[in-house]
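Students often ask why we bother predicting the structure of a whole assembly rather than each chain alone. The short answer is interfaces. A chain on its own may look different once its partners are present, and contacts between molecules only exist in the joint model. In this exercise we take four input lines together and write out one structure for the complete complex. Read the inputs first and try to guess which parts will touch.
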Amino acid sequence: MRATEGGGKLRRLLTPSQQKLLWDAATIINADARHVVYRAGSASSAIYICNRGVLKSYRDLPSGKRRILAFVFADDVFGLAENGFYVNTVQAITKATCYRIPLDTIMTILLENGALGWQFISKIAYELRESQRRTLVIGRRSATGRVAMLLKMLEARLAHPTPDVIDLPMSRSEIAEFLGLSLESVSRATSRLTYHQIIAFNGPHQVRVLNRQSLDRLAGDL
Amino acid sequence: MRATEGGGKLRRLLTPSQQKLLWDAATIINADARHVVYRAGSASSAIYICNRGVLKSYRDLPSGKRRILAFVFADDVFGLAENGFYVNTVQAITKATCYRIPLDTIMTILLENGALGWQFISKIAYELRESQRRTLVIGRRSATGRVAMLLKMLEARLAHPTPDVIDLPMSRSEIAEFLGLSLESVSRATSRLTYHQIIAFNGPHQVRVLNRQSLDRLAGDL
DNA sequence: CGGACTATTGAGACTCCTCAACTAACGTGG
DNA sequence: CCACGTTAGTTGAGGAGTCTCAATAGTCCG
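Now the answer. The structure tokens for the assembled complex follow.
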């Protein structure tokens, strides 16, 4: 068994019997776009694993601003609560399906299946590193750099049949809330990227990468 | 057993037998200030639990800038690697002691002790939320707000015999690298806080809180 | 006492945010 | 089929805040 193998794909790390154990205990949630899976402040009774689709985990600040803490993709674990209450709200961006596993069930399973627990630890550690990486990006000032980084992240996390074509399932507002920018700054950043022929848009929700090298340089921690 | 209990204190969550299991398998690391526990890029062979002291987990960017991804306090778990290699460097800020547990050992232990695995999951999930919370703070612009948030974080994570007195074990540079600010901005922020009589310094590494209400307001996600 | 390091303060450039107007796309209802 | 309202996205001008460069204190230690 490899120690801490990447983390992108939880299911690939699980043996068939482990998968069966989990999926047998799970309820399948079919969420349409905009469906709220759970709300911040509500009591937590289950953890979730995303199977398909994209969701957002966000928090509304006292100022009225909304910040998206993470986009949730396939195989991501979410719903790990604090003191028994969820701290974030999770809402579907696209049509999505998730597995819902009651807390006491998952605890029982892990109690008897330590190997599975290690896989979870690896997965959550991966998400922790993702979060830290994002903090690095937010720490920079350049709006174009932040957008470039998001594009690369989406490219890495979403399946893309055509090379150099990236889908953006989320709106500009959501991008802004995720990157810690104003909506306008996101728009200006995409305009600049387009103007410099680094990317081109096929409509507002699909991007073609024209100049990979420049994109990488912008996304890198320059 | 409570589902996901806070997370601040790992050891308090463990039964005596669990603690014995862990500490028996652990090597104790005594690190003087500035001692490097491990370096980014090196192969990972163990995970660590901080017992006493403060450390920093950082990464040097291609630009030459250094960003601190997390301060490590007592009971924090660190050293969860990516693909078998550490991605961050961990260095002691103060004199510190840590437990070092080889990877294969911890995996064997967790394999046979699912309950312990759940405690780890809770702990890492807690660190994940901490990281997300920090992302929120970094996303704001106000330097004073960021500094105020750091002060409150230190107050919460470090033992302080005297109320309203907070130790800052780290230097201004380290604060800047953590908050994503320039050193000068940190200095100006502390000056403003002092000028407005919200805090006062007993030397550069100790703060007295004079106006708790204002500090809270600044630190809040206003 | 000198030297190295840490911390503070000042002036100008740069970037983003806010407020605002404008365009485009879409669905509804007449 | 078209007018209309709503939502999403783009673009512009001014103001706020931080970053950089630079110079000035303060502190620890030999």
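Check your guess against this: Chain A touches chain B through 53 residues (CB under 8 Å).
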